[in-house]
TrEMBL record:
InterPro entries: SAM-dependent_MTases_sf (IPR029063). This is SAM-dependent methyltransferase. Transmembrane segments: none annotated. CDD domains: AdoMet_MTases.
Length: 196
């Protein structure tokens, strides 16, 4: 990707430490719930879901948690995050790197919720995941959109990332805008190759 440089982000151990200290606990707060609801609206009850960079079980819980009839697999490289989630029997989580996920096979829905802008090669990951959708599957990507005045570097970087998605996938439907209070996200729903 060309354009603005990504601000510095935590390496794997940094995430581990941040989850242990509760830094990401706010993701379960009500203010974030609109984003999870917008993601869940794209996911049928029996869809085979791969949640990449799943963190704790916030999205999983919104999808029904242990009562969810469809399969769910989460992947994250932070054991502390995975251990803080409440995963039900019959659903799985795997500790691994998004860049080389220990997961094979195809999924109906692949989720990258608040993950893409932490990755070194985001478009490579998007390409790989997009290619592993089932026919008529969908790749769901959410991007937090900070305002330029509060977080100028992040705002520019994430704008460029969203623009890069459009260049790479020009037929992608327009992104949904999700807002709660002062927080805004875009939700990009990328249909499986050949099904758009
Ligand atoms: C902001 S949290 C979002 C968590 C979850 N997707 C959600 O929306 O609640 C970002 C997550 O991405 C994970 N992550 C970041 N880089 C990763 C990588 N290279 N491989 C696996 N997980 C990664 C972090 O450990 C963290 O759990």
């Amino acid at each position: 990707m060309t354009g603005p440089t990504r601000p510095v982000v935590a390496a794997r151990l940094g995430w581990e430490d941040e989850y242990r200290r509760g830094r990401w606990g706010y993701l379960a707060d009500a203010v974030e719930s609109a984003r999870y609801a917008a993601i869940a609206a794209h996911i049928g009850p029996t869809a085979l879901v791969l949640d990449v960079g799943c963190g704790a079980s916030v999205l999983y819980d919104v999808l029904g948690g242990p009562r969810r009839p469809g399969a769910y697999l989460g992947v994250d490289w932070s054991l502390a995050a995975l251990r803080s989630g409440g995963w039900g029997p019959g659903h799985g989580v795997v500790c691994g790197d998004v860049n080389d996920p220990p997961v094979r096979g195809r999924s109906d829905v692949i989720v990258l919720s608040e993950v893409l802008y932490y990755l070194d090669r985001p478009m490579d990951v998007v390409d790989r995941l997009h290619a592993s959708l089932t026919d008529h599957g969908v790749l769901l990507i959410t991007l937090y959109r900070p305002t330029v005045d509060r977080h100028p570097e992040w705002a520019r970087y994430i704008d460029a990332l969203a623009a890069g998605l459009l260049v790479r996938f020009p037929d992608m439907p327009p992104a949904e805008v999700v807002r709660t209070g002062r927080r805004t996200w875009t939700l990009h729903a990328l249909p499986a190759p050949g099904s758009g």
